[in-house]
Structures are given as C-alpha cells and as structure tokens.
Specification:
Heat Shock Protein 90, 3 domains
C-alpha cells in the first residue's frame, strides 16, 4: 500500500452508549455521533476504537473494539461495517439477557497486520467474547487487493476450485492428526471410548474443513510463507479442544496457489518487505527530574487504551505546553502504531503496560495473565528500547493472582473524569481540572473529545500551580513496589 505519513483521513469516533438502564429501555441501538478531524499521522495505518462501559469495574457490560483506518476508502468502509455489526450483537445481547445474567458481557476486538505491501494489505482480527467468566475466541482474516480495490476471499488465492479441494484435503489430514493426538492424550478413556470419540470427531472434521470461504475465514502467514489456518471452537471438534490451528509449510501448498497471487505468500523472491523500519533508541541514562514532587505540587495525567488515531494530536498538544504524561498502552495497538509510540517515548512521556488486548485479567488463567503482561512488555521494549516499569490492568480490575503475576507496581487513579461516557470537551476539562496535589488522573487518548479538552485542562491546572508530570516523576522519591497498588502519591 502507499505509505502516506501525512494524510487527512475521515475520523469516526463513536459516542459510548448511555448507561446500562437506558440501554435496556431502548428499542433501537443508540445513535452514534460522527466527528471529523484532520491531523498529521505518524503511522500509515491508524487505529479506530469503539468503547462502551468505563475503565472502572462498576459497569456490568463492556465493549472495547479497535479496527484499522487506512488510506483506502473501500477498506475503511468494510472495516467500519464489520465493527458496527459486532457492536449491534453486543447491544442485542444486553437487551435479551442483561436482566437475567449474573455476570456481565465483555466483548473485545483487536487486529494485527499480516501483510502490508504496495499491492496487498491483510489484517488478522481477533474477537474475544465473554458472557461470564470464560472467553470464546474467534479469528477473521481480511485481505485486500490494493491494485484492483477489492477484498479477496481464501478461494481467490487457491483458484481454480480443484486447487482449493486439494488444499482442503491436506488441511483435513493435518487436522485429523492434531485431534487424534489430543484424543489419545486424554486421561480416563478406554480404547473403545477413544474410537467412538474419534469417529464423531471425524464427522466434524469433514464438515469443518470443506473447501468453502466460510470454513476458511481465518488464516495468516509469515515472511517465509508458513501458512496458519484458524478453526473456531466447535468447528472441527468438541469445545473441549478449543480453537484449532493448522500450520502448513510453503512446500506443502505452493503448487496450489493461483499464479496471480503467489507473491502474497512470498513464493516468488522478487517481493520484498518495504515497511519503514523502526529505529530503536537504545540509549540509557539515569532519570533526573526537574520537578521534586515531594516539595512541589504535582499531578500525573495518564492516558489508557492507545496508541490510537488521536494520539499524535495529543502529543502535539503536550509538546506545545511542555507537559509530560504517562501512556498505558495495549500491546497489540503498540505493534501497529510503532512510530506514534516511539515518538511519545522520545518526547519524554512514560510508557506503561495496559495488557495485550484489554481483557479483564481476573477472568483469565494464570498463564494467560502472564502472557498478557509479558507480551506487552516485550512489544513496548522492542519499539522503545527501554524496560517497562508500571502497569494498569484493564478496567482497574485485579485480584491477588494478577498482583502476583504483574511483576510491576499497579497504578490506578483517584480522579475519573468519565471521559468515556461524556464526550464533551468542556465537561471533561472541568472534571479533570478538579485534580488535587499528588493525584493521578485517568483519561483516554482514544477519545477525540478528551484530546480536545487537554489545552483547557493544562491551562487550568497550571494556573493552580500544579506541575504535570509522569508517574515516575510523581513517585521519584518514593520507590514503588512490585505488585502493590497505587492511586496517588503519599504526602
């Protein structure tokens, strides 16, 4: 695709749904206001977001979705429609089940870039949906031909149908091997049990691997052409086995790829990666702060859920006013908007961990909690060249297991301006301006209205004599302990 670093894009920011009781009474989904903006972008692919529910644990139902914004209208239209369909599903479930449900809904969507070249753009989209304590994960691949301005299906890549049929047989065989191994490893089964279970599983495999675009709606590949196909839970086996992934080496399938699209999988050598490299700042130095918050009145403003489309505009504002802030970022978003994150770090802002993809960590297993934290730390460090020292769990939700697995201080807040709910810059600015000495303010750079509120916030707090600093600066004379929770600086 064309790597345009400075481009005016149509920005769609959706107002969060009204409170839970109002949603239940509505016959139709609440309308969403459209905001437009023009800004200089530091990454060619930006992140749009839709959020329903707050960052606190008080809201029963939560929806947090990110989707790509590109320089191509036909892609943006498709991505927006896809995200809106998920939102409608969330709203429908609130109306149908909200009163009876013991636990709330937690819907989330994030994406990663599979391929970005002048002729092909591909995204792997992950959706995690929880109606209680457990998440069900689904994957979708959206692949676009930029030269012909159209979306490609899996069958387009393995045309004619004869090739698709042959590939499906290979996948069927691989899937059978995977599930045979899983069934044989199950404890407490007799040989007769395993035979019967494998027989019923074979029927699911045959149906789930049939050569249709519906079955092959999720796939990805790496720079060496290794192809991974993702099957949903219950698609090729019982739910006990979860999602099934089948991996194929290029020599297994390369002769089946349509000649027109062989370059997609890097089968031809002439296709090279043209992505602009990210240059890491690996220099290290001891932190010395100009402001001593043990003697001067300080406030730490923090921004969650980015980097996103409006983050670069926010960085411009902070730079203009000489203010430093702390960004608690999502690992998946950091990987996409690398240049924006690197800019924030180089301009003196602190980067913290806000999990990989905004799941409620209390609902996850211990290994999954650890992956959420470690993968995000690694993504941030790969971009900035610096270690991550603080984290904030999504929704401020944690338990003893999360605290133990964090390996870092947990930073909360003592002022929530409800910027996720009231998308009015004046209201948000008024609330944020109520910050007190040694306080930590929660805000979100995914909301344009919050970014627009910041000049007034900065002016108001500076007029009161406050220094606006990072978390590190706020606690510079008070070492933070791993696993301990902080919502302000002790006097």
């Amino acid at each position: 695709m064309k790597h345009v670093l400075s481009i005016a894009l149509l920005t769609l920011m959706f107002y969060g749904c009204k409170d839970q009781n109002t949603q239940e009474k509505q016959e139709q989904p609440a309308p969403f206001a459209i905001e437009t903006s023009s800004e200089d972008l530091t990454d060619a692919i930006q992140i749009n977001t839709i959020q329903v529910g707050s960052e606190t644990t008080n809201d029963k139902n939560r929806f947090h979705t990110s989707y790509p914004s590109t320089a191509y209208d036909f892609i943006n239209t498709h991505q927006e429609a896809f995200a809106q369909a998920y939102l409608k599903e969330f709203q429908k479930n609130i109306k149908d089940d909200n009163e009876k449900a013991v636990a709330g809904l937690d819907f989330g969507q994030h994406f990663e870039i599979i391929e970005s070249t002048p002729s092909i753009l591909a995204f792997l989209i992950e959706r995690y949906t929880s109606y209680g304590n457990n998440y069900n994960t689904q994957y979708f691949t959206h692949l676009y031909d930029l030269e012909e301005n159209k979306r490609l299906e899996f069958s387009n890549l393995f045309y004619p149908q004869e090739n698709f049929d042959k590939l499906a047989n290979i996948v069927k065989s691989k899937t059978t091997d995977i599930l045979t191994e899983k069934i044989n490893a199950m404890e407490g089964l007799t040989d007769s049990d395993r035979t019967a279970l494998m027989k019923s599983t074979q029927e699911m495999i045959a149906q789930g691997t049939e050569p249709t675009n519906k079955n092959y709606h999720a796939f990805s590949w790496d720079a060496s052409g290794n192809l991974t196909i993702y099957f949903d839970k219950y698609q090729v086996a019982s739910g006990d086995h979860g999602n099934i992934e089948v991996q194929l080496a290029p020599e297994t399938y390369k002769d089946l790829v349509a000649k027109k699209y062989q370059y997609v999988f890097h089968i031809k050598a002439e296709e090279t990666d043209i992505a602009t490299p990210i240059i890491k700042d690996t220099t290290t130095s001891q932190k010395v702060f100009d402001i001593d918050c043990s003697k001067e009145p300080c406030v730490a403003i923090t921004f969650d859920d980015g980097p996103a489309k409006h983050t670069s505009q926010l960085l411009d504002i902070l730079k203009e006013h000489g203010v430093k802030a702390t960004f608690f970022v999502l690992g998946k978003s950091a990987k996409i908007q690398k240049n924006t994150l690197l800019r924030a770090y180089k301009e003196g802002h602190q980067i913290g961990n806000h999990s990989w993809d905004h799941k409620d960590l209390k609902k996850l297993s211990e290994p999954d909690i650890l992956n959420q934290i470690q993968n995000t730390n690694e993504a941030i460090s790969e971009i900035t060249g610096a270690d991550v020292h603080v984290m904030r769990p999504p929704y401020g939700s944690f338990n003893e297991i999360v605290k133990n697995k964090a390996g870092m201080p947990i930073i909360l807040w003592n002022l929530d301006p409800l910027d996720w709910k009231d998308r009015n810059p004046e209201i948000v600015a008024q609330r944020m301006s109520d910050a007190k000495t040694n306080g930590i303010v929660l805000a979100h750079d995914i909301h344009k209205s919050t970014v627009e509120a910041m000049p007034a916030v900065i002016k108001s707090l500076k007029a009161k004599g406050y220094h606006l600093v990072t978390i590190d600066n706020l606690f510079s004379e008070q070492p933070l302990a791993n696993g301990k929770v902080y919502n302000s600086r002790h006097k």
